[in-house]
UniProtKB/TrEMBL annotation:
This is ABC transporter permease. The keyword Transmembrane applies. PANTHER family: ABC TRANSPORTER PERMEASE PROTEIN (PTHR30572:SF9), MEMBRANE COMPONENT OF TRANSPORTER-RELATED (PTHR30572). Keywords: Cell membrane, Membrane, Transmembrane, Transmembrane helix. The lineage of its organism: Bacteria, Bacillati, Bacillota, Clostridia, Lachnospirales. It comes from Lacrimispora amygdalina. GO terms for cellular component: plasma membrane. Its main location: membrane.
Amino acid sequence: MIKGRKKNIMSFGNRAIKYIWRKKGKSFILLFIFIIINCMNISMLSILRVTEEAELEIKKNTQAKITLDVKESDNLITKTELENILAIGNITNVNRICKDYAIPHNFKNYKGKIEDDNRDNMITLYGYDDLSQDSRFSELEMKITSGDMVKPMSQDSVVINHNLAELNSLHIGDVIEFSKNDRTISGKICGIYKSSIENKQGENITSFFRIENMVFLSRTLMEQLVNEGNYNKVVLYVQDPEKLENTVDKVKSLLGEKIEVSVSDTMYEKLKMNLDQIEKITNVILILVVIISLIVITLIYGIWIRDRKKEIAILLSLGKRKVSVFLQICLESFMLFGCSVIVAVLVGNIITTWIERALLTWQDSRIGLNINLNVYDIVKVIAIGSLVLIISISLSLVRIIMAKPRGVLTEMEG
């Protein structure tokens, strides 16, 4: 019984190979059509996979954020409130910003033409977790001319204006002191900055408000001076920009009306919109390719099966089962389909490179799509192609499969 099955398999297998060899012209046409379809499918599937990966990547890198500004200087965001906010989740990082005033000890403040008797000799202090973010430096109004900025791990770092440094002959590494309410702290100068608008300050600005008297220091050093954990401004960096509104609502419910909330996810929305456009177009093309390929292949098989009715009738008259005939035609098709997949994989790298360049010129270059072939893409192409082939062959042979063998023979004799 087993030998009979093996012989039957070998029988329709040999017939399939011989038919392909005998009908080289038709086989080449079908192979060429398969190659075109598979190249299109593998390219579209690669693009879809890469856009999904790119969307996950931009969620991490676009730094969507929520900025909390207090409305009144005497009603600041406390440490406890911030801890409650961080417990909400969807927050990857935080930049705490505090502002206060102090009197310099071992250096002088920069004098303007107008003095404020109540704030004579005072400077303005800004404490940051990370000075490179959410500050005048990130907005390019100020830039470091010597040294470095206050960084998240800084403990006693200080950044001062170049005019203030020149006035007091201060350099990188020097230690400066300032005090408030009988509390004195010291910090080491890590950077010297220059402002693009310091020369545009009006003559009516008092010394206290001049840019030269703005001193930036680490948040930990600032908290040593004021002995509090209260913040004028807090910037929350969110993990998932799509949950931004939900996170904002939770923050507002915790802090109430004491803060003004602003969100910044423009970059994410812009990049996501571009990716969504690519994904929609790719999906439409992929669906059209599958539908058109199903129609075209079904029509081709319908015509060719009609031409092979005599051959099929002879096989049935010799006692071959209809399943054997169906498997023969399937094997013929899948042999050509397998060859076309190999060619499509080789050609696909060239096509995806061309598509990648076209997308970069059309869409935002910051997306950085790196389209390449993947094993999963090839598996999907094989799965889609196999399904299309089975449906096409079944539709083409449905009359023969449903009919009785004698009916097929009678039709051929007629």
